[in-house]
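Hi team, as promised in this morning's meeting, here are the two structures we talked about. I've kept the exact order from the run log so nobody has to guess. The first one is mostly here for context; it's the second one we should focus on when we meet again. Sequence first, then the predicted structure tokens.
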Amino acid sequence: MANNVPIGKVVIKLNSLRDLIRLTAFLSPLLGIERPYIFLIHNDEKRVYFFAIKQFAYGYKPLIIYFYHEAKKEIQKKYVEYSKNEVEQIRFIESSEIRDPTKTYIAIYKVKKLNLILDPFKEDISKNIISVSTLSQEWVPKIKFMNLNELVRTAFVARNLLMVQKLSEDKYIYFTGLPAPITGLLIEEFIYGPVFYCISDPPLVGDNLAFFVSYNEIADEKKLEFKLGVDILENAVPLIYVKNHPLGALS
């Protein structure tokens, strides 16, 4: 990569390790990753699990997106067993326990050091790193939907996921098109298309945040249902809870 090519570096903090695992399990096959994995890097203060994606944005500008969660404890097992059945199940295992082809297995790789370009947790003052604010203002057109039904339908038809961020006790932002675009050209990796979003009610199952939203296309009144797990045949979209995003104001 030439030194004069600007590199976008976006770091998105997820609410939980469960969100990171769900995102990795969903995005890996979409991105052509046959053996899903997440990285663990730590020092005396932090234990950070993350999944990185390389893409290109408008103008052929390379972009690295990091999704991460900062954990208090280090997981000693080397793999994650993931299943989205009636209730989503996550189990930390060793390689000898990998035996069920109906489940997704995610490797956990411990890394000691990353170079400055790849490390999402260090400040880089060099001129070839462009800011998140530049990304949000110039590279990502945003389209607001009137209701959550249409947004979920759009995400499901495109086989995409929904990012979710809490605004207040009774309002959440839902958006899709990041990091996998709904529309747009394809140049080696995904190139950015518009991000679609809306503001709606909390995604609750009882008192708990849902892990999926199911969309009923056949019903006379198109209906959404938030769920903790889903059947493989359901029109369901994964929900990934984030603490920040690079899209600027979504109002």
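And here is the second protein, the one for discussion:
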Amino acid sequence: MTARNKKKIWWAIGAVSAVLVLLYIFCPPVHKFGNKLLGRSEKEYPKPDSVKVDEFEYGVPQDLQGEIIDVPRDSLLDSLMLADTTLMPIDGPAPTPVPGFGDGDLPPMPSEDDLPIKIAPVKPENMPVSLEEIEHYASSNASVNSKLSSCRDNYKKLHDLYSEFVMHPTSEYKEIGAKRKKDLLDELSQLMKAAQGVNDDNCLEETADLRREVNKMKF
């Protein structure tokens, strides 16, 4: 026998073996026949759509009878469910007063000591002083004195706004405060030029104090 013939025989044996293995895996009759030849026994389990198999894994099923329990409905729960789904008044008995409820005097109104502790926002360390803490000087020049009074009034308004901004830092306060701060700094610059023109050192000193405190305000 030549090598070529041996190769053909081995190819044929391999092909037949592959076909037999495939038939054993995918063909149920061949699978059962192969198990009989090998002496293997497999238990057949019923399929979900099969009613012909009488043998089950856990025995034959029996008809089960359940006990029906009559549970009374919760009238309060029903009322809450109806209240969530309808705006119409719910039929039922009128509410009856609770004995002892509402008798006697009302409790006193709570004071600040009775209220929960509220943590106030932390004020900045470099907080500008109020207008009353700044030393005032009266100018002998009427025009300079008028401008100085206007700067004092605007500083007081800006200081009140900044105090409110520190407690409630909103974008609206920030925008308004930044604009008023810029306007007041421009007004103080004009006042300083006017005070220098009349050589009013006292006015220059107060103007410098106001400018210093205004620059502390960070909007």
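Starting points for discussion:
The radius of gyration is 49 Å.
Residues 102 and 188 are 64 Å apart (CA to CA).
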